[in-house]
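Here is a typical sample entry:
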Amino acid sequence: MMEQIATTPFGGGRMSARLFMRQREAAERQEKLRAGGGGNDNGRADKWQLMRAVTEARGVFGIGDRTISVLEALVSFANERELDGTAPIIVFPSNRELSLRARGMAPATIRRHLAALVEAGLIFRRDSANGKRFCRRDEKGALEDAFGFDLAPLALKAGEIFEAAERARAEDRAMRALRSEVTLHQRDIAKIIATALEEGRAGDWLGLADRLADLVAGLGRRTAADILATRRDGLQRLRAEVENAYLSSLSEQEMSGSAHQSEQHIQNSNTDQPIEPYGRENETAKAAPEQKMAISLDRLMRLCPQIADYARNGVKSWTDLVAAADLVRSMLGISPDAWRKAKAAMGDAAAAVVIAALLERGEAIRSPGGYLRDLTDKAERSAFSIYPMVQALERGQGRGQA
C-alpha cells in the first residue's frame, strides 16, 4: 500500500489549515504509536463501546444524533470489532450502501453530516484522484490501496472521547439530582400550603403560594444548572419558612397529638377517590361520577409528553397524572385555591388534562392561572369540555410534524 499522506478534499470540499494540521498530527501520532510510544492511550478501542461514548459526549464535539447515525453507519463497514488507529482505517461504501445503513437518509443529508464529522475531527476523507471511493487489491487479493473515509481519527481520539463521556455522565447525574431536589422542595411546599388552606390555618398562605410560583416560574427541562441551583436555594429558604408558619399555626393539642390522631387525620383528609382508567388506548377514563374523559391516557401522553417529567415513576394511570399536575400547577403560577376549584368543577382528571395542556403550550398562555379560572367558570356553568383543547393540541402537533 502506498504511504498515506495528508490529502486535500476532492471537488467542492473545502481545505483549511486546521484540517491539514489535524492530518499531520494524526500521522505523527500513528508513527509514534507504531514505535511503541503513547503510554496507556494506545489508539485502539472497541468500535461499539466507542460509539456509545461518542453518543454520550456528542455535545463536546458539537454533533447531533443524525450525525452520529452516519458515523455509526461508517463504523459498521469496518471489518474488525476493534478500531486500531495506528494505521489508516479506510472504509469505502457506495452512496447507496451508506444510505441504507443510515436508515435511508437522503444523499444530500448524508453529505452534510459527513462534513460535520470531518469538522469535528472524527474522520478524514481519503479521496482518490477522481473522488470515487474504492479499493485496489494485489495479485493475491490483499488490499493494496483504498480511498474513502478514514476512521483512524476516531480511534486516536478514544481516550479523549471516553473521558468526555464520563464527564457528561457525571454532569447528567448532578443535573438529575438538582432537578429532583427542586421538584421535591416544590412538591412539599405546595402540599403544606394546600393543607393549610384546606384546614383554614392562620397565615399569609396565598402570599407564600405566590412566592412559590415566582421561584418555579419558567423552569423547564432545558433550564441551566446555575439557574436551577439558585432556585433550589430559594426553595430551601421558602420551605423552612412555610414549615415554621404551619407549625406556628398548630394548637397545643395538635402539637401533642398522638400518632393515631395524625393517621386518622390523614385518612379523613384524603377524600379524593383514585381515578383509574377502564383500559388503555381504546378505552376512556373515569374522571368524576357519571363523567367520562374525551381522551384516553395513552393519547393524552402522546399529545402532552412533558408532564411525565414531573411524575416520580412516569404516568401510568390517571392518578399519576393528577399527582403530576398538582406539582406542575404551582410551577405555572396557579394558586392552590384556583386548582382546588378547578378540580371541584371539572373533576380531577379533566383538571389534570388542562394542566398538561398548559405545560405543553408553554409561553403561548400568558396567565395560566387566569386561563384555568376562566375554564373553571365555564365548568361551573356546565359549558366546559376538554374536547376543543384536545383538538387544538392535535392540530399543533400536526403542524410541528409537517
Q: What stands out?
A: The mean pLDDT is 79. The first helix runs from residue 17 to 34. The chain has three domains: 17-156, 170-252, 286-401.
